[in-house]
């Protein structure tokens, strides 16, 4: 067995994911500056969410949940992994192509499912037009996601992690060209979306070819391997549907409050930065590693990998959550308030960000816990857990909306996130020793929480000292940088002093294969 270097893998994927999220954040800041929270911005947000929603079914979501463990185990045992990958590639292409054709015709109904509040105004027609242009993106990005899973299972993380940067760069280039040449901004952004999907697909296909897997498009067939893949993927598809229902509830609530779609989206983008860098990176690296260790019957190695992933995740996301809650207002004000994004948009967006921040550790823990199930080809229990989370989300969001308005959508998401994480954690007891917390994690977890609390106090104090500087046009960026740096330094020093982290841990993780 050639095990994956976990910490090196986390950092490699995390670094490229960070680059993608930073460039994506620049993209969102530009959208806010060019379009504010007006009809075009809201219409494009809904239109772009459609291919992303289906991508989570057929790409890195349900499909890869089944594909990656099966492929990783065949790769470990040298059981015709290439033939299995080509069959999966052909099947995925066929299904998503048919879906894309149906979606083109059904686009008005799909938009109403996302945002019924658009009906009867200009946002609806714009969203339908943009949606039809954007939707072919789902075909290319679903195939890209499958190729990314193949690369990750082989320990090749670079191309798959770097590909999303291309999408954001292409969208940024489209906006700059539209602004310079007087093009319709919404149309330019919409057409750049499928172009970015094509660019990502060929990047990952070439990387797979260099790995020794130049996948060709063949006639799809329902072989025994594909039947097993479908059997495992089916509950994951249903679970993905549950997740999308949660998103639909939030969007439907937001569509009835003017500007709320953009407030929630901008807040989501910012909290997705730590979630993507840490949570998604861990899920990407951990699933193939645990799958291959199961095949090799390495229970101790699997437990070590799970505990180090949980430790790494909590060390980074607990302080990030505290920062998003404490410093939500200056973060949104400094990063977004310009152009068409007004002072009146800052407060609601900051409120949504703080609420999402409360749920950040839960969303990351889900990425740590789910591979324990998926590596065992168990997608049924996560599906049941997702259904209960959906019920919690709907009850919380719809029940709170008459009292607290659009913020109910964010609270529903956060409460459902903690519900899902709790269910996943309780369910791991069935896995015995492989899912037990080791002494190191039990020792360090309360110290991570304590160091994060100290950092929160320091951030609050710095916000009082820098209050005027954060509001002044010429100094606000430097003030925000000082705020972020002060929080990071205080957390790092406190974490080392309390024993929540030792620099030698990082060196060991980079040096050794575990």
Radius of gyration: 22 Å
Our count of helices gives: 19
Low-confidence region ranges:
none
Structural class: mainly alpha
- What is the approximate shape? globular
Major beta-sheet overview? none
Order of helices and strands: HHHHHHHHHHHHHHHHHHH
User: Number of domains in the coordinates?
Assistant: 2
Oligomer type: single chain
Task: Give the helix proportion (percent range).
Answer: over 70%
Strand content: under 5%
Tell me, rounded to a whole number, the average pLDDT. Answer: 85
C-alpha end-to-end distance: 11 Å
- Number-wise, the strands total 0
What features would you describe in this structure?
The chain is mostly helical and 514 residues long. The protein folds into two domains: 3-246, no CATH class; 257-439, no CATH class. The protein is 83% helix and 0% strand. The protein is built from 19 helices and no strands. The longest helix has 36 residues, at 260-295. The N and C termini lie close together (11 Å).
């Amino acid at each position: 067995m050639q095990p994956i270097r976990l910490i090196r893998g986390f950092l490699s994927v995390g670094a490229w994911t960070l680059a993608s999220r930073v460039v994506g954040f620049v993209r969102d800041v530009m959208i806010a500056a060019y379009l504010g929270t007006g009809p075009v911005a809201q219409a494009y947000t809904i239109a772009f969410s459609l291919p992303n929603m289906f991508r989570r079914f057929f790409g890195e979501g349900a499909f890869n949940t089944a594909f990656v463990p099966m492929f990783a185990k065949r790769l470990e045992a040298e059981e015709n992994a290439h033939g299995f990958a080509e069959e999966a590639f052909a099947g995925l292409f066929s299904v998503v192509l048919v879906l894309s054709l149906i979606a083109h015709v059904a686009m008005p109904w799909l938009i109403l499912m996302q945002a019924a509040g658009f009906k009867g105004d200009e946002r609806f027609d714009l969203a339908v037009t943009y949606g039809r242009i954007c939707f072919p993106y789902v075909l290319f990005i679903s195939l890209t996601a499958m190729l990314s899973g193949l690369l990750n299972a082989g320990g090749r993380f670079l191309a798959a992690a770097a590909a999303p940067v291309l999408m954001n760069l292409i969208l940024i280039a489209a906006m700059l060209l539209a602004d310079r040449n007087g093009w319709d901004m919404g149309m330019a952004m919409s057409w750049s979306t499928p172009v970015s999907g094509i660019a990502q697909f060929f990047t990952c296909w070439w990387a797979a070819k260099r790995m020794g897997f130049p996948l060709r498009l063949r006639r799809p067939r329902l072989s025994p391997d594909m039947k097993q893949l479908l059997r495992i993927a089916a509950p994951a598809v249903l679970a993905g549907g549950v997740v999308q229902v949660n998103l639909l509830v939030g969007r439907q609530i937001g569509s009835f409050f003017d500007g709320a779609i953009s407030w929630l989206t901008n807040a989501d983008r910012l909290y997705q930065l730590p979630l993507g860098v840490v949570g998604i990176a861990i899920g990407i690296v951990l699933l193939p590693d645990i799958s291959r260790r199961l095949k090799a019957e390495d229970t101790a190695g699997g437990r070590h990998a799970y505990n180090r992933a949980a430790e790494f995740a909590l060390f980074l996301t607990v302080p990030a959550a505290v920062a998003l809650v404490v410093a939500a207002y200056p973060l949104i004000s400094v990063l977004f308030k310009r152009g068409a994004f007004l002072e009146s948009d800052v407060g609601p967006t900051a409120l949504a960000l703080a609420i999402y921040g409360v749920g950040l550790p839960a969303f990351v823990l889900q990425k740590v816990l789910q591979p324990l199930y998926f590596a065992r080809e168990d997608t049924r229990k996560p599906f049941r857990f997702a259904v209960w989370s959906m019920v919690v989300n709907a009850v919380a969001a719809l029940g709170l909306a008459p009292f607290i308005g659009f913020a109910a959508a964010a609270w529903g998401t956060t409460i459902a996130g903690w519900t899902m994480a709790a269910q996943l954690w309780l369910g791991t007891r069935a896995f015995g020793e492989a899912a037990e917390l080791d002494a190191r994690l039990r020792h360090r977890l309360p110290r991570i929480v304590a160091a994060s609390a100290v950092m929160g106090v320091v951030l609050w104090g710095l916000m009082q000292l820098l209050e005027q500087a954060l509001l002044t046009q010429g100094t606000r960026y430097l003030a925000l940088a000082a705020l972020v740096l002060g929080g990071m330094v205080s957390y790092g020093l406190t974490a080392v002093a309390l024993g929540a982290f030792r620099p030698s841990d990082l060196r060991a993780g980079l040096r050794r294969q575990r």
